[in-house]
Input
Amino acid sequence: MKFFIDTANLEQIKEAQDLGVLDGVTTNPSLMAKEGITGEKNILDHYKAICEIVEGDVSAEVIATDYEGMIKQGEELAALNPQIVVKLPMIEAGVKACKYFSDKGIKTNVTLVFSVGQALLAAKAGASYVSPFLGRLDDISTDGLNLIDEIRTVYDNYGFGTEILAASVRNTMHVVNCAKLGSDVMTGPLSSIKGLLKHPLTDIGLEKFLADYAKGNA
Output
């Protein structure tokens, strides 16, 4: 399973990259605003900076909600760097734009997916990635992991090449369970990635090894 980090923070992206497990980055307007990145030029420059840190795909989201606007913005984003994946909302115009970009060989990520039907439409339109938001489903007492499982079944039934990008990942168990279910990618905060390092028995074992070594070399 690929690991993407969901942030616009350059320091966190670099930290994940230096860890040696990062495969890509996802961002959105909210994450850009959180970092104080505003204005079209600044946002575009920030995407360029992200692409200089990572080697994998970088999802960059359009702001427009109409077809023509999505095409214009998506083409501007795709022109920044071959790593850019045009991120489109799961609405009618977004599906149409997805087909347009996929026909041109431009990678797409259809986001804000909350049902199998939506994921099926995205795959039919040639999406490179589909982003089901499992954490947000959990927030409303719906099983987000079950959606990942159902999409996996449908995609496998028909051999769709669209990759399942589990989004709105909140914790390490989300990561582990997505891997068990066969999600192609997960995207989450740095904490959800680094959390996989932690286990109390590892800490206890290392402490004992070091203590024994110290005794033997006193």
